[in-house]
Amino acid sequence: MIYDVVIIGAGPAGLAAGLYASRARLKTLILEKEKAGGQIVSTAEVANYPGSIEDATGPTLVARMVEQAEEFGAERVLDTIKEVELEGKIKVLKGEKGEYQAKTVIIATGANPRPIGCPGEKELTGRGVSYCATCDAAFFEDMEVYVVGGGDTAVEEGMYLTKFARKVTIIHRRDELRAAKSIQEKAFSNDKMHFMWDSVVEEIKGDGIVESMVVKNVKTGELTEVFADEDDGTFGIFPFIGFIPATELFIGKVELKDEYIVTDEDMKTNIPGVFAAGDVRVKSLRQVVTATADGAIAAVQAEKYINEVFDV
């Protein structure tokens, strides 16, 4: 069987693409290696997605997206794609469970926050450790938070967190920030911003919630354990040390920049019939709302491509 559209990835971008493609009566397949949702399924509350209903969570939002896509006929298959052939008129995707052919491909494999890589981080993610200030800042109203990193994103997100937290401390492995000077100036002039230089997080501790962390001074080797304020009982840890886009499969297949897929505003890659949507592509804002917009655009453009190339 040759599908009109095969979408790799079932996060918000992929599901939105699936919805728009299937509504256009295109034979649509969504491939996902594990479960639908992407990063959003680890978010306890989704308050910044337009129209989110009361008590909306990542999983409930994704469940509705899946239901919508399937309602219009999109198929979903769990498989891990190991190889892609994108150059021909018919694209070929080879997975662990089977081979898939398509007139167009939408890459929506996403990007994952680069973890600190210390003990306790994985276990306490969503329980004090967060990779999204926009998503989770409100949970730390009038509390202390720590931002790990020293680049533009880390400092900008730290500044954003000062709108909620009573104190924001940036933990940076060097003795000066890597962020742009203009961003640094704003940070240094903010009374809520504090800095822990030459330091890295060695371990995060807590019983179901972050209660303390061990910080190491990289110059002296000294270890310091930072405990939560007794009245708060916890604090936030926000690592902003970059993202890892899921593009390994596409190296040498489509144009990449800093590991992200390059597209135009219509989500077109440099390969005809191949589109990219969501966090996997070069873009300025990685949020659910921008991912779904990307997916919708990619699907509409895929339909136009099929009509033009295959004389539908």
UniProtKB/TrEMBL annotation:
Gene3D superfamilies: FAD/NAD(P)-binding domain
Entry's Gene Ontology cellular component terms: cytoplasm
Pfam annotation, one family: Pyr_redox_2
Positions of the FAD/NAD(P)-binding domain: 3-295
GO biological process: removal of superoxide radicals
Domain of life, per lineage: Bacteria
Catalytic reactions of this protein: [thioredoxin]-dithiol + NADP(+) = [thioredoxin]-disulfide + NADPH + H(+)
Example of a GO MF term: thioredoxin-disulfide reductase (NADPH) activity
Family the entry assigns: Belongs to the class-II pyridine nucleotide-disulfide oxidoreductase family.
Subunit structure: Homodimer.
Name of the molecule in the record: Thioredoxin reductase
